[in-house]
Design brief:
Elements lengths: L7 H6 L8 E4 L2 E4 L7 E3 L4 H8 L7 E6 L9 E14 L13 E2 L5 H11 L15 E5 L2 E8 L6 E9 L8 H15 L3 E7 L3 H10 L1 E14 L3
């Protein structure tokens, strides 16, 4: 029997909490535009793959994250491919004393969140991505310096995502402190925290291990666009 995190996108889009954000039909789903470009087919049947090719792509691409690569749907091509490391929280490490003021981010912070994510590229981030879950940030004189939040939510799990800091604010421990705040709210709901990192990002993986995450699996990430471009 497969694990929900073997196919995190499909698990999220068919979950109790995020099924309302799914668009598509006939064996293929994606997050509604504005929330993200993540998409998945129900299986590898020709019908499901054909349905994936028909998903709307106003951003120009859709993104798959699978434990095993899915065949490229007809009419699409791989625009970008990468190996991700999927990690699951085993036990949250004890907190270190830090003088960091963390605050929940609201809809009023949305433009600043999008600007920070666009600058730092923590992963696909759009104008409604911040609505996928609780986000927290660190500000200085009203300027957003760092943030972290939630993204995919398969039943019983929540992904920590959107972790980024402005280049002027790196090395201050903001990422770890913000992630801890996000993780604590996930644990308070009785869920398991997980995340994805590029497999070659040794610094990030070391931070995640220090927080209490362990590697669960290697995942195949692919950005798919039209074969005609």
């Amino acid at each position: 029997m497969s694990h929900p995190l073997d196919r995190p996108i499909w698990s999220a889009l068919t979950s109790e909490r995020q099924a309302s954000l799914a668009v598509g039909a006939d064996g293929a789903l994606r997050f509604a535009p504005g929330y993200g470009v993540f998409a998945a087919s129900e299986d590898q049947s020709p019908a499901s793959l054909a349905a994936m090719a028909l998903l709307e792509r106003p951003e120009g691409v859709i993104c798959t994250v699978e434990g095993q690569p899915v065949p490229v749907p007809p009419g699409l091509r791989v625009v970008k491919a990468a190996t991700l490391t999927q990690m699951v929280l085993v036990e949250l490490a004890p907190a270190k004393a830090r003088d960091i003021i963390i605050e929940p981010l609201t809809e009023a912070d949305a433009p600043a969140m999008l600007a920070l994510a666009t600058l730092t590229e923590p992963g696909p981030f759009f104008d409604r991505t911040h609505q996928l879950g609780g986000f927290f940030g660190v500000k200085q004189d009203g300027r957003l310096l760092a943030m972290a939040g939630e993204r995919m939510k398969p039943d019983g799990f929540t992904e920590v995502s959107g972790v980024c800091a402005h280049p002027d604010a790196r090395g201050r421990g903001y990422a770890g402190a913000l992630m801890r705040t996000v993780i604590e709210q996930i644990l308070a709901r009785g869920e398991t925290a997980f995340l994805h990192s590029y497999a070659d990002n040794a610094g990030a993986i070391a931070l995640y291990r220090a927080l209490g995450f362990e590697v669960r699996s290697e995942m195949a990430m692919r950005m798919l666009g039209s074969a005609e471009t």
